[in-house]
Amino acid sequence: MRKLLSLIMVVAMTAALLIGCGSQSAAPAENTTSNETPAATETPAAENTETPAATTEGYADGIYFAQDAAFPESGWKSVATFEVKDGKIVSADWNGANVAGGVDKKTFSSEGNYGMVEKAGAQAEWHEQAAKAEQYLIDNQSFDGINFIDDEGHTDTIAGVSIHVSDFVNLVDEALANGPSGKGPFTDGSYFAEDADFDPSNGWKENVSVTVINGYIVAANWNGTSEATDKDKKTYAKDGEYGMVANGGAIAEWDEQAAAVENFLIQSQDVDAITLNEEGKTDAVSGATIHVSNFVKLVKEALQ
């Protein structure tokens, strides 16, 4: 009897031991499964990390550029250029171009020709105040939250700046919305070309003045002089003395048609886009029926 009880106890202990071993061997299988689950989520986690990196870094790298669509009454339109590296604005240039062409606004101001201090009692010249607005953009990486104190676009946010800055602010926003544009194909500077002689058929010697900023044509002025008058050709036409409409039934006076040709060049950035027919006229520019071949020639000479 005792032998039988001892045998039963041995069998029971053996069975319990086998069950315990089976439970321990199943545990690693569960742990292995739980360890594999994070491994399966590693790829989505890496993808999620990349997307925020592109947005939190800031702006897309490159050179940004924007200019006013037209020249205001002052004759100066604003031009904004800035560069982004590693998602941050690292340089900024607020400049301007005149409707008559010639040098850019910063050069005009730095040479003492704008005369804000002398003529208007300003606290600093235009180019000096523009530099402070540029630095504000670099330091703050945007104009978000800037306070305008009037409808003209003056601000009390930027110390040392009393000129209106709204056009610069708007152009920066426009450039950011459009994305990097890079530099244009031309060399920065002011360019001029003029006919060698007065045209015997009309008495005018025509000229062209072109302004380039960030490689883009931002101003082009097609004009002329005559020995018969002290007025330039555009002024002569504006004053009604050229008389293309009254005398020739033209669709517009010479100065208006010339402005349409100039604007086409600024928009297209390609003088060869002004295609010519045998008469030296073009169908490419809406609102221009005058001869434009001399304008094309002079622009090419100026930009050489």
Automatic annotation (TrEMBL):
Sequence ranges of Low complexity compositional bias: 29-53
Residue runs in coiled coils: none
Keyword Protein transport annotated: no
Highest taxon of source: Bacteria
Signal found in the keyword field: yes
Span of the signal peptide: 1-26
Lineage of source species: Bacteria, Bacillati, Bacillota, Clostridia, Eubacteriales
Region (Disordered): 26-53
Keyword terms, alphabetized: Signal
UniProt protein name: FMN-binding protein
